Amino acid sequence: MELNLPLLSLLIWTPILGGVWVLFVGDRQEETVKVFSLIVSILVFIISVYAYFQFDNTTAQLQFIEFREWIPVFNINYHLGVDGIAFPLILLTTFITILVILSAWEVINYRISQFMAAFLMLEGMMNGVFASVDAILFYFFWEAMLIPMFLIIGIWGGPNRVYATIKFFLYTFLGSVFMLIALLYMYSQAGSFNILDLHQLPLSLETQKLIFIAFFLAFAVKIPMWPVHTWLPDAHVEAPTAGSVILAAIMLKMGGYGFLRFSLPITPDASMALDGFMIALSLIAVVYIGFVALVQTDMKKLIAYSSISHMGFVTLGFFVGFAIFANTESSTGAVMALEGGMMQMISHGFISGALFLCVGVLYDRVHSREISSYGGVANTMPMFAAFMMLFAMANSGLPGTSGFVGEFLVILGGYQASFWIAFLAAMTLILGAAYTLWMYKRVIFGDIANDNVAELKDINSREIFILSILAVVVLLFGVWPAPIFDMMHPTIENLFQHVLQSKVG
Amino acid sequence: MNTDMQSIYLAIVLSPLIGSIIAGLFGKLIGRSGAHWVTIIGVGVSSLLSLYAYKYLMFDGGEIFNRAIYTWLTTGGINFEIGFMVDQLTVTMMVVVTFVSWMIHIYTIGYMHDDPGYQRFFSYISLFTFAMLMLVMSNNFLQLFFGWEAVGLVSYLLIGFWFKRESAIFANMKAFLVNRVGDFGFLLGIAAVLMTFDSLDYNQVFAQAPDFANATVNIISGSEWSLMTVICICLFIGAMGKSAQVPLHVWLPDSMEGPTPISALIHAATMVTAGIFMVARMSPLFELSETALTFVLVIGSITAFFMGLLGLVQNDIKRVVAYSTLSQLGYMTVALGVSAYSAAIFHLVTHAFFKALLFLAAGSVIIAMHHEQDMRKMGGLYRYMPITWVTSLVGSLALIGFPGTAGFYSKDAIIEAVHHSSLPFSDWAYIAVLSGVFITALYSFRLFFLVFHGKERMDRHTWEHLKESPAVVTVPLSMLAIPSVILGAFLIGPMLFGDYFTAAIYVQDQHDVLGMIGEDYHGVWAFTLHAFQTAPVYLALSGVLVAWLLYIKFPEVPQKIVGRTNWVYQILLNKYGFDTFNQAVFAGGACKTGSFLWKFGDVKIIDGVLINGTASAVRWFSGKIRNIQTGHLYDYAFTMIIGLLMLLAVFVHHLME
């Protein structure tokens, strides 16, 4: 059945318009607001699933293309389209948003309509980021997205939220300004903001390097890479649970997406020239941040650091390809590493989201994120303990969970570039397990530590529902990741072939 | 026929998994007996079908099964698949794993009778059986790694089963992390395999392996290393973690914090032998690197000798058996090192039965003693627990290699194999395994005499309640005692000197020590009688004799020996300082590194200097601006986005028309 709907527009505008409506309904009708928001998010998810069945797995071409002129003077267009890189991330966004809205159900008790509106709008904008083919449209969504996130932390956040929001805003905003300059420069060369045109634009190596650095500032902050990562732990600590989930599960992936969509294909020669730098930063993220995560006393900070460490695998997978190709003269290992990086992004969406939800469950009950406020939670919340065990193991990259797949492929690929790259990356096997399980031990195991823990009630059916869905997904893609790979394979293959072609005049 | 076998193999793997899921998720609903029935049936089905597969393959001349079940993922032109390979080696492991697991499921009904986590326990041990089967039945490195880590997970869950005990939750984390150190090497080995052979499929890897026998890699610039040596040592580091070889052995004694049935199943009979199995499976690779084999031999003999010594000074009944397990794993590793893979597997099989038996007997004693594990508070139990006593005696005799028992054949074969080996260090290894025989006998019968004979040293309350364990405990004991006696005599001929393993294990001619022994092999009886002309039997018997003298005849002597050689005793008591060292250097060092990187790197340098410097400048600036404005930030911001969005929406709408 071909309906010929403007699917991507629907994915962007349905939640945004839904959000506007929710805002107008206001806080007087809380139930209506919640139910309506949930329905909208489910509807958007259904649209994305429908799109999945329409999605052609065999081509690297953009699909579901929509094109309207927007600002013809500057050749800026409302141009949408997705490929095997963008579409999985859209599916992730629509999926996670449902859970986020459910997670706030009983927890947020003031300004509920604004809360829901912020998340719905955020969903639309994030879909917009992934679906934009026009660089200015991309930039528009990219910046607009910051506003609801800024509000989410600023209004519903913790006591130190002002510091966190300023830090968050400064970091990300500064980064993206440079991206805008790079885009404008390239427009002056190509006369187009179409990302695909920019992919073909010949540029000298020096220019590429400058553009690469501009993009790097935007994307490295977002994902985040060491040493521009320190906003993330603060933002997470202050953000409400739902905000942390979106931040970790999707917003970080924008950085990775940017590297794949802009940095690699637009500045392939610079990427190749600077790959050692990127690999080094990635490995520092994996190892250095792994150690830092070990000594955290705040659960959210620990998971935030763990996220940074896991994102090291994403950037490693994206930039290690040149070295693999140089070493093996085959694209096999490079494609493996790239796809491993992509898989790591998607899987981390589920796992970090789930872990932040788990911390949220505890925080809602005890109002503390400190590891030392807990101990022996398994005695009073056995079901919760079981879920958290699964997600902790997934976070440690246990085979059979989705967390294993990406790391495994990146390590296998990394080995083909150098033994030592794989050696350092594989440290995560020990470090990741150490910080995750040590936290788990101190929070969940042991005898009941205090009265707060003694009075804990196990998770209710809403929480069980949310965590079960995530558990199913984490296990499903752990034992059968093939569908995700089939979706992205032609695009990644094509991307790497493109990246191998020099663009130097 | 092969399709039928596929469904049988699937059933073997999946029925414990299904049992585990039902008991785990619906434990409350089906209740205690529901949980044990569903899992016992699951593992029972698996066990019987494994026996059928054994018959099919070993007696009916059935084909070796090797097929992918489904594609896990495809990337870069490489198919990662989940699939089974069932050959003689696999099917042997399957029978051992499922049978021991089945017995332990039954035993658990008695042992865990009063435990509130009853259903959870059954769910875990069935899950373990599933994971272990995935490991042994794999036809590729990916699935091997899955099973490898999955058994590690269940081991972690079970060591920490009594999660209120601080010692248990310390031990389980330690076990997981130490295993991860091994897996770290293992994963690098797998990565090297993939890079070299462009495949993770056993058959493809093994077929190509000889082509790379002389290949080298450049790991540290300037020095060329043999590729096969690098691959094999990396893989073996994985085996060192899982099979608890020095220095990655430290987790196994602590794992005794778990309930006794799992000490028997996981930390004696099956999981810890995964490393041995893996190396045997990889024999086509290990055969290509004498350096790697020598490494294996050295590590194995160190473990066999030094871990045995530690068994002498332990007073906890389970810990004695645990150190004995370490030492026996060392024997198996030694056998692998001298290319006597079949002997390693042979010892693995017999050990699985008699060590499971010994642990379950220890558990039976622990039940009778009301969870007292200190042997100094036992004694004279043979009067009250005749079945446990007899079966323990059988297990101990098998362990020390008393002629005729299963352990005798397998251990003697290993000692002979080392004797015939011409690898470097094989002379040392021979001395280590020979003296190990005496040590084994000494600590085994020290345990036996302290527990079952001599003075009754328990308190009055315990003494009044002493009685033999129920049938769910004694029946598995008896069932395991039978193979502990007879299995060796049956298997030695075909397994070591016949064509039992055919193509499953590959040995190069110049390494074929078992072939050399086989030239003088004239049947079981001759082998048994011949043993009386060699040292090991007398070493074992003198060990028993010394134990009798020290612990029955002159029980005051051990104290005097300890007094005279206090420094030796202290070294042994401190387990050579491995734990202290690891705790201080690795655990402490990691925390210090983390603190430093965080407090100095992140907080001081990046945040303190780079970020907050900028931020305070901005704050000063925005403070000036804020004076001009009033109202709430979020009102402004929302108005702003809505405005922007409406502009865009109107525009899009306009365009669509």
Your description of this structure?
The complex is a heterodimer of chains A (505) and B (657). With 505 residues, chain A is mainly alpha-helical. Chain A has a domain at 281-497. Chain A contains 23 helices and two strands. Chain A has a two-stranded antiparallel ribbon. The longest helix of chain A is centred in the last third of the chain and has 35 residues, at 332-366. Chain A starts with 6 loop residues before the first helix and ends in a 5-residue tail after the last helix. The model of chain A has no long low-confidence stretch (mean pLDDT 91). In chain B, a hairpin with a 2-residue loop joins strand 1 and strand 2. In chain B, helix 11 packs antiparallel against helix 15 (341-368), helix 14 crosses helix 17 and helix 16 runs antiparallel to helix 18. Chain B is mainly α. The interface between A and B is large, with 87 and 73 residues.
Unreliable residue stretches of chain A: none
Mean pLDDT of chain A: 91
Which strand order do you get reading across the main beta sheet of chain B?
1-2
The tally of strands of chain B reads 4
Low-confidence stretches of chain B: none
Instruction: Profile the largest sheet of chain A.
Output: 2 strands, antiparallel
Q: Share of helix among residues of chain A?
A: over 70%
Structural class based on helices, strands and sheet pairing of chain B: mainly alpha
Specify the biggest β-sheet of chain B: 2 strands, antiparallel
Q: SSE order of chain A, as H and E? A: HHEEHHHHHHHHHHHHHHHHHHHHH
What fraction strand of chain A?
Answer: under 5%
Number of strands of chain A: 2
| Computed CA radius of gyration of chain A, to the nearest angstrom | 22 Å
User: Roughly what fraction of the amino acids of chain B lie in strands?
Assistant: under 5%
How would the global form of chain B be characterised? globular
